[in-house]
Amino acid sequence: MEPLPALIEHFQDLDDPRIERCKLHKLIDIVFIAICAVVSGAEGWKDIEAFAQVKQAWLRRYLELPNGLPSDDTFRRVIARIKPTQFEACLRRWIETVVENSHGELINIDGKTLRGSYDRHDERAAIHMVHAWAGANRLLLAQRKVSDKSNEITAIPELLDVLDLSGSLVTIDAMGTQRKIARQIVEQGGDYVLALKSNQGLLYEDVRTYFDEAQAHDFQGIVHDYYKETDGGHGRIEVRQCWCSDDVAWLPHRAKWKGLRSIVLVEARRIEGEKESLQRRFYIASVAAQAQRLAEAVRGHWGIENRLHWVLDMTFGEDASRIRRGDGAENFGLLRRVALNLLSQEQTVKASLKNKRKRAGWDNAYLEKVLRI
């Protein structure tokens, strides 16, 4: 047999959730087949079984399969019982070999609900995950499930704990704009750009009022930096402007926000035909008032929606998935994210992720390239 891809080596230490007499198939075989199937377009347990049956000759090049192929029930039962924290740790160990470190990277933190995991019959709420996304590398770095009786505020610190933030710039939406989270990022060697909304109360109002007055007087007498960019297409024009200032000494309780160095206003004006809209967003940051860098960080944060969450729903069918039993929804979600990382890293074929998945299912040589065999 040929050696398994390096990726799979990082899943060798998974604890097998089965009792000894039920171990008809090797755990690593089940995981390997599942990853290959999801890369190739599988969206459920029956899809994985069908993939294995069609690809049996190819799979036997890498796996012994002493008792034949696992059934869809086997994939369902076994993967739903793997501990999600162990499964996710295996993914992170692999990512660490792909990207030596995230120094200097822009890391976006944001949450996503697996809507199909809601179970009305068992009164189980939909699973909500918090992701760490490296936009430059198009890699999911890590994820954490939000506890049923909690929210992102408790999950984000756990997620940050497993990341190397040295030299990185971390962006988080308003839910994560908390003093403890800001302090943790700085103490782990990173910097932050945190969104402000009315749930920050006086801080939001103070920053908004500052920029309202500054704009009314055309920033006269105020030391600041400014950046503007315009793009468009298909009858649409978007103008983005960023103003920032390191004049923060006046902010009440500024010392409680560790590392706070600047405040930021980003305006996005969208013109489409006769319609025009304007969005204004406010931020605090632990980096110097450099408007272009801050504008790019804010725009980069929107990338987690377009390149991760949207892709998981539209290309991998995550919202439509009805996998619910045990930890099946969370672990199948991780299989999708492994597949997304693998397909994003494969750059020899210039195609959409949807077409890459199809090609991996049709062409064994291309599947091997994606798996880096």
Structure description:
The chain is of the alpha+beta class and 373 residues long. The chain has helices spanning 6-9, 27-39, 45-54, 56-59, 72-79, 84-98, 152-161, 179-187, 202-216, 291-314, 328-345, 353-362, 364-371; strands at 106-114, 127-134, 139-145, 169-172, 191-196, 225-233, 236-245, 262-272, 275-285. It has 2 domains: 6-83 and 327-371, no CATH class; 91-314, Transposase Inhibitor Protein From Tn5, Chain A, domain 1. Helix content is 40%, strand content 20%. Strands 3-2-1-4-5-9-8-7-6 form a 9-stranded mixed β-sheet, sandwiched between helices. 39% of the residues are buried. The model has no long low-confidence stretch (mean pLDDT 91).
Instruction: Spell out the helices and strands N to C.
Output: HHHHHHEEEHEHEHEEEEHHHH
| Quaternary class | single chain
Query: What is the strand content?
Result: 15-25%
Q: How many runs of DSSP E, i.e. beta strands?
A: 9
| CATH topology annotation of the largest domain | Transposase Inhibitor Protein From Tn5, Chain A, domain 1
From the N-terminal CA to the C-terminal CA, the straight-line distance is 13 Å
Rg, Å, rounded: 23 Å
Helix segment tally = 13
Highest-level CATH class of the largest domain: Alpha Beta
Structural class, by secondary structure, is alpha+beta
* Largest beta sheet: strand ordering: 3-2-1-4-5-9-8-7-6
Task: Report mean pLDDT, rounded to a whole number.
Answer: 91
- The rough form would be described as elongated
- Helical fraction: 25-40%
Q: pLDDT under 50 segments (min length 5)?
A: none
